[in-house]
Design brief:
Ribosomal_N-acetyltransferase; 6 helices; alpha+beta; globular; N-acetyltransferase domain-containing protein; 183 residues; 32% helix; GNAT_dom; single chain; Aminopeptidase; Acyl_CoA_acyltransferase
C-alpha cells in the first residue's frame, strides 16, 4: 500500500497523517456549507482536535488494512480527500469516498484520483470489486463513477443520514476484470 500516489504532474495523494489536521480543519471551515450538503460528518468536525482524533482512527484502520485515506495535493496545496474505505481483504472489495474544495471542482481532479486509487486497489491490494456510493440527488458525485465506466447496480434506500434526513444512495461498482479490459 502506497504512502504517496502520484496522479499526474501537479496532483498527488498522500496518506493522511497528523500534520494534515490543521489544514483539513481550515479547508472544512471555509467549505463547510459546500461540504455539509452531502457529507454527514461535516457538522461533527468543529476543531483541529476533532481532525486529530479522526486521523488517529484512520491510521488505526490503515494499520488494520481496512482503509487507505489520502489527502489530495495540488502542487503543495491540500484541496480535498479521497480514500479506499471498508476494505475487505477476505471478499476482496472496498469503497471509494471523496470530497474536494469548491474552488477545485469541475477540473477532473477526483476522476483522475479515483483512477489512481482504483489501479492501486486492483493491482496492489488484489481487490476484485470497488464501489462508489452517491446520493441520488448528488449529480456531481454520480458523474465520477459514470465517467469511469462503473455499473449502476441499484439504490440503497435511506442509506445515509445527512442534514437530519435520510437520503437514498446509488451504488456503482467496478470489477477488476472490467477495469482491465481495453477501452
Amino acid at each position: 500500500m502506497s504512502i504517496k500516489i502520484k496522479v499526474d504532474n501537479t496532483i498527488a495523494m498522500e496518506l493522511i497523517d497528523y500534520h494534515h489536521a490543521e489544514t483539513l480543519y481550515q479547508l472544512v471551515m471555509v467549505n463547510r456549507l459546500h461540504l455539509r450538503e452531502w457529507l454527514p460528518w461535516v457538522d461533527q468536525m468543529r476543531s483541529v482536535d476533532d481532525f486529530r482524533k479522526y486521523i488517529s482512527s484512520s491510521k488505526q484502520r490503515y494499520a488494520n488494512h481496512s482503509e487507505m485515506g489520502y489527502v489530495i495535493m495540488q502542487d503543495h496545496e491540500m484541496i480535498g480527500r479521497l480514500g479506499l474505505y471498508n476494505i475487505d481483504l477476505v471478499n476482496k472489495s472496498a469503497s471509494i469516498g471523496y470530497w474536494l474544495t469548491k474552488e477545485w471542482m469541475g477540473k477532473g481532479i477526483i476522476t483522475r484520483c479515483c483512477k489512481a486509487v482504483i489501479d492501486e486497489g486492483f493491482s496492489h491490494l488484489q481487490l476484485n470489486r470497488i464501489e462508489i456510493r452517491a446520493a441520488t440527488a448528488n449529480f456531481k458525485s454520480q458523474a465520477i463513477p459514470e465517467r469511469l465506466g462503473f455499473k449502476k447496480e441499484g439504490i440503497i434506500r435511506q442509506g445515509e443520514f445527512v442534514n437530519n434526513e435520510f437520503v437514498d444512495l446509488y451504488v456503482y461498482s467496478m470489477l477488476k476484470e472490467e477495469w482491465q479490459k481495453p477501452a
